[in-house]
Amino acid sequence: MMGDNAAEALPHVIMQTTVPLPMLGGELPLLVTGDQRGYVPVAALCHLMGVRPATYLSRWQRAPFWSEALKLMWQTPTRGRRAVWCLERHSLKDAMQSIDWRGIDPERREQLFAFSQEYEKLLQESYAGLLEEYRAFRRMLYRLLTTYARIAERLQSFRERLGLLLSRHAMDQVGAVLDEGERIISAGADFAATHVRAIEVADTLQTLARGSQDANVTEVTIPSISRADFDALTQHLDRFSAWQDRFDAFLQRYGIS
Prior knowledge:
Elements lengths: L3 H6 L3 E9 L4 E8 L4 E4 H8 L3 H8 L9 E6 L5 E8 L3 H6 L8 H60 L2 H26 L4 H12 L17 H27 L4
Antiparallel strand pairs: 1-2, 2-3, 3-5, 4-5
Helix pairs in contact: 5-6, 5-7, 5-8, 6-8
């Protein structure tokens, strides 16, 4: 496995998924890079076809389609995260045509033929779905950042203003609500910091705080995204929305707008 510095030098994989292949009784990993191109690990493709990667890797490296190949970090099923050679998804047809089918079991050969007729559609569907999830995550993260940046500035001024308007008992209640909001915002900001480069988060929040209209905040860089990341982001947004409803209800109770 490559060290951290070497891994950082590789093209960045923003998302990884697996494409179910019912005709083969298996699945194929699909990696998407920052330029939104899809790649399939050579080792996974060879395993699917029942051939040795070492045999075909050297052969494919001399083929014209290899010019599109990349070495990428792949989260393998059993051996952790590794740097592996990957074929650009549109190169799979050329790669499969170069296989010596005589060494493959006849039944498996028929299955692979069926796969060769359908794989482009299957990969395209998975690829399109993956990109849509990625873009949805970016939109949700942008919403989290902009909302938190706006509200975080207002919490302290709310605390000071309400202290002049409310009784001590009411202020104790609203203080607890404001404290809860600050905890939710802090947790959400910590989550965002793990998905956006620290300097870009700082620059984005500073620009938003200045009220700039030209901040290209939707183009911040986001690391690899998992289903757990999606679920966690949704939970952060849901918690904040629920808190905001409670806070608005409190203000309405005391006739404060």
